Amino acid sequence: MCLAQLFLQSGSEYDCISALGELGLVEFRDLNPSVSSFQRRFVSEIKRCDEMERILGFLLTEIQKAKMSVPEEDEVPVAPPPRHVLEIMEQLQRLEMELSEVAKNKEKLQRNLQELTEYTHMLRITHSFVHSRTRYEALGPQYEEFPALETDSGPSATGMQRLGAKLGFVSGLIQRVKVEAFERMLWRVCKGYTILSYSDERLTDCDTVDISDSVVFLISFWGDQLGQKVQKICDCYRCHLYPHPETDAERADVLDSLRTRIQDLNNVLHRTEDYLRQVLQKASESVFSWVVQVKKMKAIYHILNLCSFDVTNKCLIAEVWCPVQDLQALRLGLEEGSRKGDATVPSFVNRIPSSETPPTLVRTNKFTSGFQSIVEAYGVGDYREVSPAPYTMVTFPFLFAVMFGDLGHGFVMTLFALWMVLTETSQKKKRCRNEIWETFFSGRYILLLMGLFSMYTGLIYNDCFSKSLNVFGSSWNLSPMFSNHIWTNKTLQTNALLMLDPNVSGVFRGPYPLGIDPIWNLAVNRLSFLNSYKMKMSVILGVMHMTFGVVLSVFNHLHFGRRYDVLLLFLPELLFLVSLFGYLVFMIVFKWIAFSARDSSGAPSILIHFINMFVMQGKDMAPLFPGQSGLQIFLVLVAMLSVPVLLFGKPLHLYWLYRGSKGLHRRRGYERVRRVSEDDSSAPTYDEEDEEEGAEELCRRDPLPKQLDMADCLLHQSIHTIEFCLGCISNTASYLRLWALSLAHAQLSEVLWAMVLRLGFDGSSRLGVLVLVPVFGLFVVLTVSILLIMEGLSAFLHALRLHWVEFQNKFYRGTGVKFVPFDFSLLPAPFELNGSQSGDRVIEEPLHREGPESRPPPLQGSLRSRLLFTPRLLRR
Amino acid sequence: MVSHSLALPMICFTTLWGLVGIVAPFLVPKGPNRGVIVTSLILTAVCCYLFWLIAILAQANPLFGPQLKNETIWYLRYFWE
């Protein structure tokens, strides 16, 4: 990774940046950190892009409301040159205006339609009121009777005219929930001189909700004053009032005219909708490319804002981090950009030396990217540090499988992962929005490996849906127990449990060749054997894993030119680990090999021997092997001695370097500058250049007084020592979770078998088949949900913890900054921004980071987002 | 209920994982992924061989035998032998 300067010709800078964005090779640095977002050069262009994005968002929602699909083209368009931008802007604005006008018109028409339909209903229902008044046997209890009207079948006003008062009518619609209050109010105000009739009939053939919740009412009253009061009350209750026709003929007329008007309105509405659809259809054809183009444009302007403008040379200067391998491709890209932009002078690249630590780039393909992301979730590696990812690719699924080990469950997991892998091209096109599915999908290769390893460990544990496979024939034989007359038929009848004795010859004939003997599945004391086996296995695997981690630190020391660290850090660490825990592993294996059933009564407990080794007691205990006590004393001494070497070695060495080298004669002409601080990661060396034996180029740090440096160095080293030594013990014990989880898994699996599936086999009648089917369904559901998903996630998490803490803290720093190139394919997908378009995008700069000095955000904050395997990190 | 030797499986599995871990890395075609594939092969061989080895060594000299129910013993006696 190197720092490079790009000199972009003033006319062609847009095209050059566009070409670079397509290539996705470099990361831009901000050359104007002190300028606020609103003062940068290209703010107006970005605002224009924002405006276009807003219109596009509105367009997309309209298209989605009309339930049309947007065709996504396979070929992604490039960013348009600035002269095309105005055209696109114009088109978009025109479309927006058209759409909003059409929408407004449509709304108005629909409101009209609603009113007309209400009027129709009202007429129809009040017609039935008027007629039903003539027959009081058909009336319900709510109707008030005015005796004078009962003889009328015709116009209802004549009866009242006889009394010399004018009968008025108010009719309309009111919401159903307000009817009772309305009635009460009318009664109180008008003192009973009004008649309110309303219908409970459900209004059909309506589109809007309002109508169906309304009731039609008819108020009849005497006199004008009462009429005014009624009017006011109706206004207060927000009724929709319509004029009540006096005669039947008038009513029929109005009904007719209403019907024709409604028909007309419906026609117009249909045509408006058709027109709207047409407009949206035409827009939807090009909306995809517009969205992509606008996004790319905006990104380019963001990047242009980061560059500094060199007024004298009429060119733009940009600083980028570029991988050394890609410099040639960068040059070609710039040339192409200059050519497209018709520049007189081509833009070029100039590599500059830098003392800053570049960001870390790890190239991954679709297989390794999942593993890289789970390593990076802990922390991005320092620049050119040993990455645990290639080793994690095997050890992580392996440790998962040790905890998950079941042939059947592993098989199901493998099938699922295989399906995802084989259909990955079509799945990628579908782009399902569900985030949990995206998580599983981006980890499909991890799942595949986990499943395959689980099948292997399930084979070794001899556990397939909690049953064992007897492929080779069990090693334990029963007949010698009978033929040697240790057991008789009578013993069988009297004792419920009997234990096979390996001391009797012929009972045990050699270990089962592949994994655990199947007879243990039938044994009652199965767990005592399995626990001992799995605990020892966990310790062995743990010690080997940790030793591997310590050995990996050698590569780090050698690469960063710290030869002395190999002697002063690696060697004491390794000796400490191996002399104590390597010896424990040796004892375990020795006991397996050397002690058999003959001396089972006198077999020593390894744990007690181990503890006694530290306490230097236990001389009266039978030794495991001759010379054990002497060896143990030697090993404890070695371990004890390596602690002070670890603690003081490096500080003393650095002190000697700082003080003592003034007296050293070196062949170099200039004075050596040396590094006095402990911090290794921020002093890069030019890896390709001159690295003579023993001579290192060190950068001068700011001149701190010697005292402070030594204290800092000592403190750092003592923390490291304590962490390592205590950590050895606690980490070894931590690996016992391998045993714990595999035990839990096996027991859960057995419970499901015994409590669920076996019940289905119990039926002795023919109906047992009918019982078996739902029982099996329940078994499958519980297996998938509890054993596969829950236990799978749990084992995944614990295997991840074992890697992150126990393995990586032996060698991995993980304090680096990730290299994020300016790449159009890393922008969020075009239609993800559907609902979240807003005008405040000017302030956001999604593609840029403040520079390599900034540390990555704390683990908790970013853990969730990183752990969710965002697909944006998939590079190819 | 057969007798198994220790030597035969030892030879078989050692050669099997030896092939995977030592011989197969030389057969990987040259390409950008060669290093990763070789690392994975070696690690797989080591892990899987170790796991199998632990399983067989733990059973090689058992200090106690399985404790069975008398019904199981009766069944095994007549069906397995």
UniProtKB/TrEMBL annotation, chain A:
Assigned protein family: Belongs to the V-ATPase 116 kDa subunit family.
Pfam families from the UniProt entry: V_ATPase_I
Compartments, as annotated in UniProt: Membrane
Positions with biased composition (Acidic residues): 686-696
Coiled coil residues, start to end: 85-119
GO molecular function, one term: ATPase binding
GO BP field: vacuolar acidification
Described function: Essential component of the vacuolar proton pump (V-ATPase), a multimeric enzyme that catalyzes the translocation of protons across the membranes. Required for assembly and activity of the V-ATPase.
Region (Disordered): 675-698
Keyword Nucleotidyltransferase assigned: no
Lineage, top ranks: Eukaryota, Metazoa, Chordata, Craniata, Vertebrata
Keywords, comma-separated and alphabetical: Coiled coil, Hydrogen ion transport, Ion transport, Membrane, Transmembrane, Transmembrane helix, Transport
Organism field: Knipowitschia caucasica (Caucasian dwarf goby)
Protein name per the record: V-type proton ATPase subunit a
Transmembrane parts of this sequence: 398-422, 443-461, 537-555, 567-594, 633-658, 767-790
GO cellular component terms, A-Z: plasma membrane; vacuolar proton-transporting V-type ATPase, V0 domain
Protein topology in the membrane: Multi-pass membrane protein
From TrEMBL, chain B:
Organism from which the protein derives: Knipowitschia caucasica (Caucasian dwarf goby)
Compartments reported by the entry: Membrane
Membrane topology: Multi-pass membrane protein
GO molecular function list: proton-transporting ATPase activity, rotational mechanism
Keyword Transferase: no
Function: Subunit of the V0 complex of vacuolar(H+)-ATPase (V-ATPase), a multisubunit enzyme composed of a peripheral complex (V1) that hydrolyzes ATP and a membrane integral complex (V0) that translocates protons. V-ATPase is responsible for acidifying and maintaining the pH of intracellular compartments and in some cell types, is targeted to the plasma membrane, where it is responsible for acidifying the extracellular environment.
Transmembrane segments: 6-28, 35-58
Family: Belongs to the V-ATPase e1/e2 subunit family.
Protein's UniProt name: V-type proton ATPase subunit
Keywords: Hydrogen ion transport, Ion transport, Membrane, Transmembrane, Transmembrane helix, Transport
Subunit description: V-ATPase is a heteromultimeric enzyme made up of two complexes: the ATP-hydrolytic V1 complex and the proton translocation V0 complex. The V1 complex consists of three catalytic AB heterodimers that form a heterohexamer, three peripheral stalks each consisting of EG heterodimers, one central rotor including subunits D and F, and the regulatory subunits C and H. The proton translocation complex V0 consists of the proton transport subunit a, a ring of proteolipid subunits c9c'', rotary subunit d, subunits e and f, and the accessory subunits ATP6AP1/Ac45 and ATP6AP2/PRR.
Top-level taxon: Eukaryota
Chief location category: membrane
Pfam families named in the record: ATP_synt_H
InterPro entries for the chain: ATPase_V0-cplx_e1/e2_su, ATPase_V0-cplx_e1/e2_su_met
Cellular component aspect of the GO annotation: proton-transporting V-type ATPase, V0 domain
